[in-house]
Amino acid sequence: MNQTVDIKELNERIQKESSFVDLLTLEMNKVIVGQKHLVESLLTGLLADGHILLEGVPGLAKTLAINTLATIVDAQFSRIQFTPDLLPADLLGTMIYSQKNESFVVKKGPIFTNFVLADEINRAPAKVQSALLEAMQERQVTLGDQTYKLPEPFLVLATQNPIEQEGTYPLPEAQVDRFMLKVVISYPEKNEEQQIIRHNLAQSFPQASKILKPDDIVRARKVVKDVYMDEKIEKYIVDIVFATRFPENYKLERFKEMISYGASPRASISLAAAAKAYAFIKRRGYVIPEDVRAVCHDVMRHRIGLSYEAEANNLSTEEIISEILNTVEVP
Amino acid sequence: MKLKFPYKIALQLFFAAAVSGWVLPTTAKAQSVSATATLDSTLMVIGGQMQLQLELRQPEGLQVSFPQLTDTLTGKIEIVSAAPIDSTIMGDGRVQISQALTITSFDSGLHYIPPLYFEYREGSEQRRAATREQALMVVNPFKEVDPEKGFMDLKEAMNLPFSMAELLPYFKWFILFNLLQLLVAAFVIYLQRSKKTIKQIFIPEKPKEPAHVVALRELERIKSEKLWQTGQVKTFYSQLTEVLRRYLEDRYHFPALEQTSGEILRQMKHEDLAGSDLLPKLRTVLETADLAKFARFEPLADENNTALANTYFFVNQTKLESLPESPESQDKTKAKNDEEKQMVK
């Protein structure tokens, strides 16, 4: 098979650079029983340089997953429990007066780390959420008159508890849009749960080994950006996103009244970036429609607004996305 | 005629009662002015209502004032309403003035209605005509409340069944008009449907071309266009996979056009394929096409030819061909067609 030089070179590079993926997945699976999708999504977010909003009931190894990832990458990790009395300064840091030096000194907050677990983000008031989401977007924090860059790689994993809504501050649509992926995690399978019991009762928790350096992730991200995406795939992504905005143009008239607002251009960007990262995880130098479909639910589910009619008909964004994927023609 | 003893006593009592005003209407006369008060009945249920008819007969032009009544007739008999005073000319220079009072009582027992006085002036003398006093028995038909039995809740409101007959007087014309409209609409729909049925029976739809016929024709077109030979490798594979997907969709009835190569291969694993080499050939075509379409791969000339040949092979091996008709069934079809032609005529 005769190949064009660029793709051949790229494929070789990706084969070389993505060799850690299998090892990383292996180490993650040593500690996290089941939750294959969570591990895959964490990797996608990490490699696509996007943040993740995680939705799931307590006790599904969210903290353990990001902690393990931080261990494997040999990176710093902070867990911040969001509460109603949390202040932006508790997160970002503040200026405190030093009597010794007779001047204000900067006290950096827990956000200055590689991996942040923002636990129950919807329990903190809007000002704290805004502070975090601004930092996520800008990758820098301003304290006093100084701006500080956040360390690289920087990944925020925010969690939301879907069962307790009283006394919470739901994230506004504009803020949710800043998360590249919204991952919904479910309970483990029967055999997985059995294994979890065994691990816990035996008190013999497997430990993940440090196999990467943060710089390896930064380098891998650059390679991910180079993954080839054909014009046909771009059109496919645009079609999917447009189907959420104008469903009637894609033989989905019945969703016209069900969708109050469709996905933003940020969704198209995120879908493309996540598909590239997924292709990298699968150790491919080019994106195929399977990659787009694999990440589509996670990228789109928090970017589609449902109308009252949809809620009255018990229609979820999951069903809408599935129907769109089953209707939009694959290139 | 000599009356027997019991009848004689009864007759005497009747005359005595009539004179005292217990049986006949109570009447009071003052020369030419007479006043009467008549009750509908001497018995009334507690809280019930009845009429007390006041009548005054007098010479025309005489000023007689009616008794000033407010809302109570006596302490235990109340006036619910008083009708306007009405006058009737009786002839011989006399008139009758009457008024109806609606009365009620909320106390059981025997109540006396006192005489009602109508005052007038006759010359320089002040006179008055009075009605006779009357008795009204108010009875309580309800059971006595026994507080020892404890307190009971209020009874629920009664629900009467709704009947369309209640609406009929108000919406008679509206209902008739709507019924007429419905009848007209039903008739129009019936006419339209009957037309459609005729059309469906006698004008058969054009049969859809078999999936393999369309696919083979399209493959011939792709072959004749010589796309990969002229450098249009991507277009060649795009068209080739589209033909293949459309064929799979029509032949195996699953949405192949909206599925990825992996999904199609997974789906085809469940299909009963004639040859064991069909699935690997399909995989080769789809995977080579994916590489050409999405990864800028330029397959060799042999690979392009193989892809086209494999697609031909797959379509030919999996096509659904209808069996040739037997002479008997041909006769039956002919007879059926003749019958239909007759019906059209």
Note down, in words, how this protein is organized.
The complex is a heterodimer of chains A (331) and B (345). Chain A has 331 residues and is α/β, with parallel strands linked by helices. Chain A folds into 2 domains: 5-201 and 212-216, P-loop containing nucleotide triphosphate hydrolases (Rossmann fold); 228-327, Magnesium chelatase subunit I, C-Terminal domain (Helicase, Ruva Protein, domain 3). Chain A contains 14 helices and 12 strands. Chain A has helices spanning 5-17, 19-31, 36-48, 62-73, 88-92, 126-138, 173-176, 190-202, 214-226, 231-245, 265-281, 289-300, 308-312, 317-327; strands at 2-3, 52-55, 77-81, 93-98, 103-108, 115-119, 140-143, 146-149, 155-160, 181-184, 259-261, 305-306. In chain A, the strands form 4 sheets. Chain A has a 5-stranded parallel sheet with strand order 3-6-9-2-10. A two-stranded antiparallel sheet of chain A has the order 4-5. The longest helix of chain A is centred in the C-terminal third of the chain and has 17 residues, at 265-281. Chain A is globular and about 70 Å long. Chain B is an alpha+beta fold and 345 residues long. Chain B has 3 domains: 23-139, Sandwich (Immunoglobulin-like); 164-205; 211-318, no CATH class. Helices cover 44% and strands 22% of the residues of chain B. Chain B contains 8 helices and 13 strands. In chain B, strands 1, 2, 4, 6, 7 and 8 form a 6-stranded antiparallel sheet that branches. In chain B, strand 10 (117-122) and strand 11 form a beta hairpin. Chain B starts with a helix and ends with a helix. Mean pLDDT of chain B is 81; it is low at 17-30. Chain A binds chain B through residues 1-4, 6-7, 228, 230, 232-233, 285-290, 293, 325-331, and chain B through 238, 255, 257-263, 290-291, 293-300, 303. Strand 1 of chain A pairs antiparallel with strand 13 (297-298) of chain B, so a sheet runs across the interface.
